[in-house]
From TrEMBL:
<dbReference type="Pfam" id="PF00234">
    <property type="entry name" value="Tryp_alpha_amyl"/>
</dbReference>
<protein>
    <recommendedName>
        <fullName>Non-specific lipid-transfer protein</fullName>
    </recommendedName>
</protein>
<keyword id="KW-0813">Transport</keyword>
<dbReference type="InterPro" id="IPR016140">
    <property type="entry name" value="Bifunc_inhib/LTP/seed_store"/>
</dbReference>
<comment type="similarity">
    <text>Belongs to the plant LTP family.</text>
</comment>
<feature type="domain" description="Bifunctional inhibitor/plant lipid transfer protein/seed storage helical">
    <location>
        <begin position="15"/>
        <end position="100"/>
    </location>
</feature>
<comment type="function">
    <text>Plant non-specific lipid-transfer proteins transfer phospholipids as well as galactolipids across membranes. May play a role in wax or cutin deposition in the cell walls of expanding epidermal cells and certain secretory tissues.</text>
</comment>
<dbReference type="InterPro" id="IPR000528">
    <property type="entry name" value="Plant_nsLTP"/>
</dbReference>
<dbReference type="GO" id="GO:0008289">
    <property type="term" value="F:lipid binding"/>
</dbReference>
<keyword id="KW-0446">Lipid-binding</keyword>
<dbReference type="GO" id="GO:0006869">
    <property type="term" value="P:lipid transport"/>
</dbReference>
<dbReference type="InterPro" id="IPR036312">
    <property type="entry name" value="Bifun_inhib/LTP/seed_sf"/>
</dbReference>
Length: 104
């Protein structure tokens, strides 16, 4: 028997999931060359659908922020433009400089 427990207020999305979802965006947000890929845009849409609660959004934001910190060449301006380019509304940018506790 498998038992799944989810506590209210706790995120159900993992950092591994977030990193895998946004990984296809890395080349574009680091260089700004070309355009975002279909895989990147699909990933943002998947992230939006996966992070529905405040806890999930904050967790996903923190995971994306931590991942972004590992890319010194991250172009914050290009990264901020991704939701518009992909026509996918996510509640936070992929950024090193965001306060994820402000996400609701």
């Amino acid at each position: 028997m498998v038992r799944l427990m989810v506590r209210l207020g706790e995120a159900t999305i993992s950092c591994e999931e977030v990193v895998n979802i946004v990984r296809p965006c890395a080349p574009y947000i680091m260089t700004g060359i070309g355009s975002s890929t279909i895989a990147c845009c699909n990933g943002l849409d998947q992230l939006r659908k996966s992070a529905t609660t405040t806890a999930d959004k904050q967790q996903a934001c923190q995971c994306a922020k931590d991942a972004a910190a590992g890319f010194p060449m991250l172009n914050e301006q290009v990264s901020a433009s991704l939701p518009t380019l992909c026509k996918s509304h996510i509640d936070f940018p992929i950024s090193k400089n965001i306060n994820c506790q402000d996400i609701h």
